[in-house]
Amino acid sequence: MPTTARCAESPARDTVGRVIEVSGLTKRYGPKTAVNGLTFTVRPGHVTGFLGPNGAGKSTTLRMILGLNEPTSGTATVAGRPFRDRPRGLRHVGALLDAQDVHGGRTAYAHLSALARGNRIPRTRVDEVLREVGLTEVARRRIGGFSLGMRQRLGIATALLGDPPVLLFDEPINGLDPEGVRWVRGLFRRLAAEGRTVFVSSHLMSEMEHTADHLIVIGRGELIADESLAEFAARGTPQSVTVRTPDASSLTAVLTAEGASVRPDGDRALTVTGLSAVRIGELAFQHRIMLHELAPRTASLEEAFMELTADSVEYLAGDTR
Amino acid sequence: MTAPTITARPAEPRARFRDLLAAEWTKLWSLRSTYWTLLLSGLAIIGLNVNAAVADHHNWPRYDADIRAIFVPIWAMRDAFTQIAGLMLMLAAGSVGAITITGEYGTGLIRTTFAAVPARRSLVTAKLIDVTVVMLGYGTVVAGASFWASQAILSGRGVGMSIGYPGAFQAVAASAVLAPVCALVGMGIGAIIRHSAATMVVTTAVLLLLPMCFTDHYRWTADIKHALPAMAWGRLIDLGYGRFGFTVRRPTTTTEAWIVLALWALGAAAVAITVVHRRDV
Fold it and tell me: Do residue B117 and residue A87 have CB atoms under 8 angstroms apart?
């Protein structure tokens, strides 16, 4: 296992060996379709976010990529091969599916040692990954006594064990404290910068906002979006401008005449869409209307996400369907 | 912090089966329950058998000539391997085997395991072999100690058997082998059911209760009964079988009994490998 001697790598080199390719992937459980005809590619050198509401099929998709679940139809390959065709996995794909997928009776060290041994990974690597995730102190303690955050770290250590070119993380932030969250974000960025493929699922857009460069969004098992973070952000609610003025009625008339749509928004405030803040300022100046505030509002990614997935939310609070 | 690197990646070493054996060995012995179950059940089994020998040693002066005439080998062997100790051995071995499988499914560890080793059949085979080796060792110690201790006690009355007594070695060997056979049965059932508690119930039922459900009154019920591991074991430790004027309604041979034990072991292993390979986790 190389731990030193790192040399600059051209991003183009061996990129095929790191691509996750999902094609027409479908999984049905009886009458219920969990994943429906998903097709996407996850490329190396980026953190790719895998977003969707709860029950959208993210975990099922990740499990099919890892060969844990057999697709009803379609294929999922890593580096051109179905993962299940490989005799040993850790050097090809590192995965954290669920931090609870451990036996509480074993120590962290025993857990990792057994995994390392099965993959012919030297035991020194176990100490390295334990150090990397900050669990060295508790390595000889049984996992049963670990907090969720510690288990997440152990899961990340497991994923890193084989120094793999492809990494999958299913909701890795759950249970981490703020320091842990920051550490994980930095880790993902670093892994991607090293040329690895990093695929991270989450149901929280705000999470991806700080981590991902590229997004794959699914809802009810179907692909909704596959684009860069910037492109995704542009999808959100059209930009609006909040204007505060003592003469709301005059301004409304002026702006409406210019083709904007104006909506009163509380006391003396207007939400204007269809005109830029600059243009609104010019028009107000020309018509001598006083403005107290002129604030362009950018739709947040969260809003873009909510809007996009509104139709495909599986479990809605207060849902009476 | 040392950054891992993916450049200068060495060629992946060839996958070796013995690494899986070693990995599963680590997993088996890194659980305290393995030690405790084996230790406590082993002591209990030996204790039960020793107790029977002590009782016979104590009661010997009151035994009449008829009993004394057949004490060796029938009673002496029954002291070495009492019925209750046999049940306990089957229960302990079945549990240990079952838990090696259901412990993975119940905790979710199985997903981590198969993400690390996608070759499921190899992995399950390694697990089966490790459990077989451990349980054979356990069975040998427990059966050997039971025989040796009980006969040492009985020899105080001059009625202890040596391992060279006709059939004695076979009885000890059958008792030793019973442990891995039952462990494999537990693993096979565990692979099908996956749920720990339900697996224990079914394993117990198959190993301990099923023999009570069949009489040897009819040919077909007798056939089923004789095809059960508990009855095969009973056949192999019964040194009075068909002798000393005892008649057996539907006799079986020791060879048949050995075949029964072998088939249960192999069948359970085949089921575990096939089922785990095929199903989603």
Answer: yes
